[in-house]
Amino acid sequence: MAEFSPNKPVETTEPKVEVTIDPNNPFPVGRLRFRLVVTDDAGNESAPDEVDVIIRDSERPTAVLDAPRAVNFRESFALAGDRSSDVGGRIVTYRWELIEAPERPNGPVFDGPVIVRPIPPITPINPIDNG
Predict the structure, then answer these.
(1) Is-contact 111 94, C-beta < 8 A?
(2) Contacts of 22 (CB under 8 A, 6+ apart)
(3) Residues of the chain with pLDDT > 70: what percent?
(4) Tens of pLDDT, residues 40-68
(5) Cβ neighbours of residue 89 under 8 Å, at least 6 residues apart?
(6) I need a surface site. Which of 39, 53, 85, 123 has the fewest CB within 10 A?
(7) Strands (E), 41-84
């Protein structure tokens, strides 16, 4: 059992941990994101893995949107809201919205570091004086 608070790592030697909630200070309703980094016996750290956990509202419906983490360029993909729920009721509509996209939607977007190399100034060529 561990009490988690934002940006304060909890380290264990066991592969599972229970997130203990303080009844007087529970997590707010909404999406929590947890990160796991593991270290081997040689001291090597893994790349981080992350997961979202949704704290549900007991009165309003809770939207849960599932989508692939990555898709190939020019391939269709599905969004799913079937894990959305309403305690004591049922979902009757789903409203989907694209809220952000790259500025160049017609081609691949390079997301690596931009390398800027200065161009040396052009030196004008002096005409030869044949005087």
Answers:
(1) no
(2) 3
(3) 78
(4) 999 999 998 988 888 887 788 988 899 99
(5) 61
(6) 123
(7) 49-55
